[in-house]
Design goal:
The structure holds two protein chains of two kinds. By secondary structure, chain A is mainly β. Chain A contains no helices and two strands. Chain A has strands at 3-4, 12-13. In chain B, α1 (9-19) packs antiparallel against α2. Chain B is mainly β. The chains are: A mainly beta, B mainly beta. Chains A and B meet through β1 and β2 of A and β10 and β20 of B. β2 (12-13) of chain A pairs antiparallel with β10 (126-127) of chain B, so a sheet runs across the interface.
Amino acid sequence: KAGQGNITSFFKKQ
Amino acid sequence: MLEARLEQAALLKKVVDAIKELVQECNFDCNDSGIGLQAMDNSHVALVSMFLKSESFSPFRCDRNIALGINLNALQKVLRAAQNEDILTLKAEDAPDVVNLVFENATADRISEYDLKLMDIDQEHLGIPDTDYAAQISMPSSEFQRITRDLSAISESVTIECNKEGVSFACEGDIGKGNIKLRQYTNVDKPAENVEVNMTEPVALTFALKYLGNFCKASGLSEQVRLCLSNEVPLMVEYALANNSYIRFYLAPKIGD
């Protein structure tokens, strides 16, 4: 079953 | 100090309505180019990025960078006291404890003034990379809202696929499945009804409908919405506002099978 991605794994903390 | 006057309180009321389901507390970052906001939802699946350019206000003055830490539920309570057509002025000192909101009706015979307490919010700021999206879809925001609502009744997630045929929104749930296809459409007399699909390579991504439904709360801000997709990156849903101001939502795709 598909899992939900996390936005912080695409956009890095500044 | 900050002083920012909006011709219509409706804009700020709608912005708060659009984001308060996703985000409860956030900083309004004020500088000389305008008022911005970036915040993730609690589960870190979605991100909202809003910017109201200084040109959206008249006048606009902000001498120093000021972060207004605001509880959106509290702000909404104060904004309920403003009529949509009221002129709204935001004021704050350089290191403020409160933000001052003034609502004036068009005939200037009623002036309401509120102070909203601010809070210290330690917020992470994410770098959003410039992306050349593989597919960009512009469509009526009401149409996107309807698709999202209709498919939410069937499934928790939707697969948005863009190819030479156009764009499709497909879902599958316990009761069955649904699929909505959109093709390019141009109405010269009513450009708000246009559907425009620009694609450089085919894309198919799956997203949680719950978040898309939240984004659609911004539909009243703009007649058109733009969806930008590339494989394996977050979806961007943009509602463009006057004066190059915008509200953008990013949603991480569902991953794996």
